[in-house]
Amino acid sequence: MLSRPSPRGRAPAVRPAPGQEEGRSRRSTAAARGGGLLLGVALLAAVILAGLAIGTKQIPADQVWSALFHPSGTANDAIVQRLRLPRALIGVAAGAALGLAGAVMQTLTRNPLADPGLLGVNAGASAAVVTAISVFGMTSFTGYLWFALAGAAVAATLVNALGGSRSATPVRLALAGTAVNAALFGYINGLQLLDLGTLDSMRHWSIGTLAGRELGLLVTVLPLLAAGGLLALALARPLGALALGEEAARGLGARPGRTRALSIVAITLLCGAATAVCGPISFVGLLVPHAVRPFSGPDPRWLLPYCALYAPVLLLGSDVIGRVVIPPYEIEVGIVTAFIGGLIFINLVRQRRVARL
Predict the structure, then answer these.
(1) Which residues contact 317 (CB under 8 A, 6 or more apart)?
(2) pTM, whole model, 2 decimals?
(3) Which of 95, 111, 163, 237 could form a disulfide with 168 if both were Cys (CB 3.0 to 4.6 A apart)?
(4) How many Å apart are CA 73 and CA 81, to the nearest integer?
(5) What's the whole-number mean pLDDT along residues 157-162?
(6) Helix, strand, coil % in the chain, rounded to nearest 5
(7) What domains are there in the chain, each with its CATH number?
(8) Per-residue pLDDT tens digits for 107-140
(9) Which residues cross the membrane (predicted)?
């Protein structure tokens, strides 16, 4: 017996299986996130070009290209190669380091207001630099570099020890970091008040700037930045498990104590090296993870690469803005990032886009 055709002569629609719908959704999300990374690369290239072309003297894009790849010894070649290119490269490296350190810190502590300074890295670096200036008479940025790195490492180690080392909890780390920060900044302020020469020298470093930094400083700290960046990216999966809680992380095969200790090492290398070269720059490590999380999602495997791309965009963009606001003078990038970062962060909070961790 023949079956009746459907009323309209059409075969019934076949719905995809739930597994197929889930697979399509995952592929679509991955494609969108991949597109966001490509956009980050394009924006980073644009701000690098802007940083090479814009300043007290405007240089056309074709002359920037010629200075980079076909130099002829002109004044524009010298400006691009000796002044603006080192500034741009240091900005890329420092911005990526601060963005990665901020994302790792917020994921590690499950605290949306955490930034690398919570571990005492900035305070430790500043305390070491002020000691170098006041006690040892240090005057060069190269000398500041090693003192800042050592101070950052000592402060982070102290916070980790006070927080319980491998048994530390996010709350204990935050409390230990707050206490160490308060003590170190009290020491810094006291030493500056006792020695006005130290205060005058310290303000040039502590304001946070990319100007006047030689490429040799970046070459010196590049191994530390590379080691910290690779370690942070390698910890993406265990950090994602740790964000679910201690018990869930252990159930997924992660080792919370080891992950926490290695994360602190990565943060210290990244933020300590960036702070040593540029001085303490605020809001980059705090803001960028919040700004990109609606697009990258909370998974550190996506969040960390997003932060590594978009943090240099914020830092270099702020540096370019600081050059053009009140020409022929420049506003230091640390001031601009604090102002822009504050405005953007307030906007994110008002729109309730700050993701819960």
Answers:
(1) 47, 50
(2) 0.85
(3) 163
(4) 10
(5) 85
(6) 75, 0, 25
(7) 45-350 (1.10.3470.10)
(8) 888 777 777 777 788 888 888 888 888 888 777 7
(9) 34-55, 88-105, 117-138, 144-162, 174-195, 215-240, 261-283, 329-349
